[in-house]
Design goal:
- Helices cover 4% and strands 46% of the residues.
- It has 394 residues and is mainly beta.
- The strands form 8 sheets. A 4-stranded antiparallel beta sheet has the order 3-2-1-32, with no helix packed on it. It has a 4-stranded antiparallel beta sheet with strand order 4-5-6-7, with no helix packed on it. Strands 8-9-10-11 form a 4-stranded antiparallel beta sheet, with no helix packed on it.
- Strand 6 and strand 7 form a beta hairpin.
- The longest helix has 15 residues.
- The N terminus is likely disordered.
Length: 394
Amino acid sequence: MMTRWTRPLTTLLLTLTLAACGSVPALRGSGDLGVVIERASGSVQVVDNSHRQALYRIRGLGDLSHASLVYSRDARYVYVFGRDGGLSKVDILQGQLVARVMQAGNSIGGAISSDGRIIAAQNYTPGGVKLFDAETLDLLADIPAVDAHGQVSKVVGLADLPGNRFAFSLFEAGEIWVVDASQPRQPTIRKYPAIGKNPYDGLASSDGRYYIAGLFGEDGLALLDTWQPDAGVRRILPGYRKDDPALPVYKMPHLRGWSLAGDYAFLPAIGQHSVLMADSRSWQEVAQIPVYGQPVFVMADPSGRRVWVNFAFPHNDTVQVIDVPSRKVIQTLKPGKAILHMEFTGRGDQVWLSSRDDNKLVVIDPHTFATLTELPADSPSGIFFSWRAHRSGM
């Protein structure tokens, strides 16, 4: 008979026996792991940023040409949203694909609920948002993006909010919707119409208070204060393109990489060679900081002291660093061809960059700007470290 004294010993012996048989992988945490999208080969790499090395490559994830992912709350699994509508669940500790469903014809990303139970996918085709069980990937709800006039829209800018809510924008309809998924099979929706023309992307502040949609069809951005939902949506930063509104846009900037540094927000100016600096309390424009090209990602290091910027073609071999107090560019780097993404480690001792056309990852010391190492990768794009598991709006 097993007693409370013999049970721990039995468990230990069983563990040692399995380990001796090679059935139990070495124990490790996931706090220093990350996942790199390899867009051309439909694969992802799991990387270790403590030892700056690749651990696994997982294949068979479909079209990852504009892929993104979110982490489970235990940072063991990632949910990869493929451009072909595939939703894949990957175990990053085992290096295995554990589940995959085709949920749409053209998908553009997703989010995970604050309790970690619900995965939300946003779609271009057929539009709308679908909710899935994070454990099984079973469909929980299908939310068509159809406005009051019957207009079907592509969904962009999906972001999680506290309380198992999601916010997103409707490109054609020009609306922001907030979904309460507390009852995921019967979600409720609050709609904000006429927020502006052609919202192209959106973001949520890390505290979940603000949701901001960038407007492609108008000059400015739309802001929803979720602490005051009855106040509606208001326009911010109007007229920032008034001096050169006709500049061609080579690539849409990604708002989810926006930066909050101290009391200021830094945002890419669409089609402009500048970074917008706004007061994050009043949302009034403070400055436009000239940069090398059209910014794509504008990302603060974890201290908020510096902001790193990459650029659209033909300047996508360049990265610039802005010093926040002086509001000036203090460093220009040429780390590789087609720098598509940047990701800081949780405490900012490294920044990893994906160089798509050089098929490599570049790891840089953000304090000295020295290159620490380079790692091979197959057309890398997004880099996602596991600290994201515990942050909202990621």
